[in-house]
Design goal:
The chain is α/β, with parallel strands linked by helices. It has 10 helices and 5 strands. The longest helix has 26 residues, at about 205-230. The two termini are about 30 Å apart.
Length: about 270
């Protein structure tokens, strides 16, 4: 599926991209900090998991779980007082009724990661490590972009930018599947606004560079899966719902496959309850 065939970046259905070399990558859109009901969870067979994170994310998740066990809600409180786009997102999100939100670690990515571990499915960390020179250069560019005086000045009026973007994104909202609270549509608008402002901070050029590198590594992860599953290989990728369009656009460019290996070798394709 190409980006031109996707009706909306806030569509609820997961997006499948077929690799011309064989296999497919399924982009599973998630809304940060929200516990997904069963109807929004993958109900299809997948063989490996691609996380658009570095390996350090697992250690962070474990620490957040420990923090929550000691003091429930501490991570949400920290995010709220830290300010920025995530604080604005959470502040409005937790006011929505029938939405289990503000949960840490991020529920849906952590859930599918646990599932992959439980069934020994390969897990691929798509963000390169810091000893990768090309990625180090990218991170420096990102930091430089965020620290530009125009961006820093813009942060002063971040609340105004947030409200304007929410009003714009409302028109992209899609009705959730039957049986799911209508407030999930509102949550998707807030998630899109959080994403848009986060991307505004780093700029379009830096964002595209990241997406193109991730697309090359996603193709590499799928290529690794094909060694076991041939053309039936299926890589599941949980990511922020509005990010899917950008990743699909980069995949459609057919970037050269970047070799990447998983941290697991065996896989059991039985699905989770």
């Amino acid at each position: 599926m190409s980006v031109s065939s996707v009706s909306s970046r806030l569509a609820w259905k997961d997006i499948s991209w077929q690799d011309p070399d064989g296999g497919k990558i399924i982009l599973h859109g998630v809304l940060p900090t929200i516990v997904y009901p069963r109807k929004l969870r993958p109900d299809y067979e997948w063989h490996g998991l691609g996380l658009l994170e570095s390996e350090d994310i697992v250690e962070l998740w474990v620490q957040e779980e420990k923090d929550e066990a000691e003091s429930q809600g501490v991570n949400r409180s920290h995010a709220l007082i830290s300010g920025g786009t995530m604080a604005l997102y959470l502040d409005e999100l937790i006011e929505l009724e029938d939405i289990p939100s503000g949960r840490f670690p991020d529920p849906e990515p952590r859930r599918v990661h646990r599932l992959a571990e439980r069934h020994n499915r390969p897990v691929y960390f798509i963000e390169p490590s810091f000893d990768d020179e090309e990625w180090e250069e990218h991170m420096l560019k990102e930091a430089k972009e965020v620290s530009r005086w125009r961006k820093l000045l813009g942060l002063i009026s971040l609340g105004g930018k947030w409200r304007k973007r929410v009003k714009k994104n409302i028109f992209e909202a899609k009705k959730p599947p039957k049986g799911i609270s209508a407030n999930f549509a509102s949550a998707s608008v807030l998630a899109a606004t959080w994403w848009d402002l986060s991307e505004w901070l780093i700029g379009e050029t830096v964002s595209k560079s990241r997406n193109d590198r991730f697309a090359a590594r996603l193709r590499g992860a799928l290529a690794d899966l094909r060694k076991t599953y041939n053309d039936d290989a299926c890589l599941l990728v949980p990511l922020a719902t509005p990010w899917r369009h950008q990743i699909i656009s980069s995949l459609d460019l057919l970037p050269e496959v970047e070799e990447i290996t998983s941290n697991k070798t065996d896989s059991d394709t039985s699905e989770e309850e």
